[in-house]
Amino acid sequence: MPRFHCPQPLRPGSVVDLPEPVAHHLHVVRQQSGDELVLFNGEGGQVRARLVEIGKRRATAEILAIEAVDVELPFRVTLAQGLPESSKMDWIVEKAVELGAAAIAPLAAQRSVVRLSGDRADKRLAHWQAVVVSASEQCGRNRLADVAPVQDLQHWLARPTGDHTAILLSPHAPSSLAHWARAQAPRDVTLLVGPEGGFSNQEEQAALAAGALPLSMGPRVLRTETAGLAALAILAATWDAL
Fold first, then answer.
1. What's residue 159's pLDDT?
2. Angle, CA of 26, 28 and 32, to the nearest 5°
3. CA–CA distance from 30 to each of 23, 35, 230 (Å)?
4. What does the alpha-carbon distance between residue 37 and residue 205 come to, in Å, rounded to a whole number?
């Protein structure tokens, strides 16, 4: 059954207007009145719905029943990702959502090739948020991961951390993430990943001074688009959340 994000209240018995992109997609794939689909508004749970009418740009659906489906990780993972080059960030956001990340914080680091500010940064943020929606529709998540505006690493380190354990992924760390996780109870975690070339020595020292725990991904050096995703998978597997 097809799934779509519908950012509005979804109450059983009500008839809702579907977002225009959803209506267009349903029209293209030749869905018809009476066909059923799944809708979620990003706040948790999903609903089963039935198409009432459909056109090229407009469609309505009747909400039939609430389904209390929750596939979230039992702990919150934030991926703080140093901005990589080109379109790698799109791929990182998509796969991080599939693996269960609750939040993604794009960071402007000293070695980041891409520089975003002003309107360009706003457009990229909106694009990444759309990637989150699309990935959530595909993977079955009913809560949308937060994507923060691009910020400087120093400003990000100065923010309140709450109860999160901050982990600096570094090939120079003496202990591995997998070894550390096996000795810990599940907890909220922030994974700090550098761009191509990693964080500078100055940035690593600033992260450590802010309380980050240095851990490696093992004997091999992973690319920036691999490290954070592999770390997410390690935590989920080790803490029995897969």
1. 83
2. 50
3. 11, 10, 38
4. 50
pLDDT digits (tens, 9 = 90+) for 203-213: 999 999 999 99
- Contact 41/84 with Cβ under 8 angstroms? no
Listed residue (193, 189, 217, 219) closest to 204, CA to CA:
193
For residue range 184-199, list pLDDT tens digits in order: 999 999 999 999 999 9
Domains and their CATH numbers in the chain: 3-67 (2.40.240.20), 77-238 (3.40.1280.10)
Closest CA to 98 of 223, 193, 229: 229
Other CB atoms within a 10 A radius of the CB of residue 74 amount to: 11
pLDDT tens string 65-74: 999 999 999 9
Per-residue confidence at 241, pLDDT binned at 50, 70, 90? low
The number of helices, as runs of H, and strands, as runs of E, in the chain is 7, 12
Cα gap 50→34, rounded to integer Å = 6
Q: Where are the beta strands (DSSP E) in 55-164?
A: 59-67, 77-82, 103-108, 146-147, 151-152
Which tokens sit at 219? 């004997």
Asked whether 115 and 124 are in contact (CB, 8 A), the reply is no
